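Because discrete structure vocabularies remain unfamiliar, it helps to consider an illustrative case, giving the amino acid sequence and backbone structure tokens:
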Amino acid sequence: MKAIVIGAGIGGMSAAIALEKAGFTTAVFEAVKEMKPVGAAISIWPNGVKCLNALGMKASLRALGGNMAFMAYNDAHSGATLTRFSMDPLVQQVGEHPYPVARAELQAMLIDTYGRSRIGFGKRVTQVEQTATGVTAWFDDGSQQQADFLIAADGTHSVIRHYVLGESVERRYAGYVNWNGLVTIDESIAPADQWTTFVGEGKRVSLMPVSGNRFYFFFDVPLPKGLPEDRSTLKDDLRGYFAGWADPVQRLIDAINPETTNRVEIHDIEPFSQFVKGRVALLGDAAHSTTPDIGQGGCAAMEDAIVLAQTLAAHSLGIEDGLLRYQARRVERTKDLVLKARKRCDVTHAKDAAITAAWYQELKNETGERVLAGMCDTIEGGPLG
């Protein structure tokens, strides 16, 4: 049995690797000629780590991951620590570490595991058709491919989503802008083994360690869509938005390279319940585009891949039946993740200023138990426990 996989991002590559391990043949096609990952890094929480472990990348992932042994929230203006706690109770409960990794390095690991030369780059899908026995995909270069089924992992701007749903869905602006990138670790900004977040005014500045003596950083600011800001104004923009914030934040702004810093207006998509049409299935952001507020977007795509391969391998009533069983296992889980991220987004970014102010006060009494319990609940909802 052969699968066409559309998209060579995290979801598409995880799906292709998982399907091949389950005995399927795959062909992967990617619209761009060269992969340039959106975003500087990604936090892979233990549910995602377990998926990559199961796909044979345990050692490779550890080489890319940073040591995130502690978690801390600091006051925006004074820089004082509001709370700090070890991540070890989470690790012990769920049985795996979290690993922040540079996104380009994660992408390269997935592609190299599958085989870079096997991927059809520069192949943008334009049309999909299916019969009772197979699927045909057409590409903008005039070529076509046939297979027994097709997995659409073509991202939040998915072309194939419309085919599956029979209608277009609008992306929803989450109300904030995120700047992200990588800098050399500087312990005058934050400890090298800690996820550090400065919070205030409905904004945040966060740093996570990744391999190679680097911090992954991001800034969040609630803003209107479509402001005329780009790399040429980036440092001045951040200095304005974070005027009066603590010295470590100012040092971080000084340290960043505007040419390698991304500015992203954050969106999600209202959850929907149809991931499958016959022999065509959506996966990853094409099926459940989320904000990054609980760090589960990439992890959810990896979970999709594991469940897809498990389900197809374990059932024998045909591809269409197997894909519907994949859908049944993923719809509620991914809806829950999208809505949890949206709720966290609103609290973090002061959609209701009183609720956010109350959260800041709660952080002063936080021992870590409540925060880690919420994380464990999310992690343990994954397909590998």
